[in-house]
């Protein structure tokens, strides 16, 4: 799998999530991106933290495909 020494955390600000179903959809989409070891979505905070080696642009695209807007930060 991924080498832990190259893994990092990427924080995304996610707009448009309003319920647990939304958060689950975003988490599921993020977990399918190559290089993601873990994804944790904070519905109340409107954020997602992804651990792994995934390309941030691919993470943003995965969230967008679910109908939400995300920015890295």
Helix content bin: 25-40%
Q: What is the terminal-to-terminal distance? A: 26 Å
Task: Sketch the major β-sheet.
Answer: 4 strands, antiparallel
**Mean pLDDT across every amino acid position:** 94
* Overall number of strands: 4
User: How are helices and strands ordered from N to C?
Assistant: EHEEHE
What form results from the Cα inertia axes? globular
Radius of gyration equals 11 Å
Tally of helical runs: 2
Pairing-aware structural class of the strands and helices? alpha+beta
* Low-confidence region ranges: none
What topology, given as strand order, has the largest sheet? 2-3-1-4
β-sheet strand percentage:
25-35%
Structural features, described:
Helices cover 30% and strands 34% of the residues. It contains two helices and four strands, in the order E-H-E-E-H-E. The protein has helices at 20-31, 56-65; strands at residues 8-15, 36-42, 47-52, 69-72. The chain has a four-stranded antiparallel sheet, covered by helices on one side. A hairpin with a 4-residue loop joins strand 2 (36-42) and strand 3. The longest helix has 12 residues, at 20-31. The radius of gyration is 11 Å and the shape is globular. The N and C termini lie far apart (26 Å).
């Amino acid at each position: 799998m991924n080498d832990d020494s190259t893994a990092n955390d990427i924080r995304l600000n996610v707009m448009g999530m309003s319920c647990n179903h939304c958060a689950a959809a975003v988490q599921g989409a993020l977990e399918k991106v190559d290089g993601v070891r873990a994804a944790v979505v904070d519905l109340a905070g409107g954020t997602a933290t992804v651990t792994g080696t995934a390309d941030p642009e691919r993470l943003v695209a995965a969230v967008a495909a679910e109908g939400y807007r995300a920015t890295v930060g």
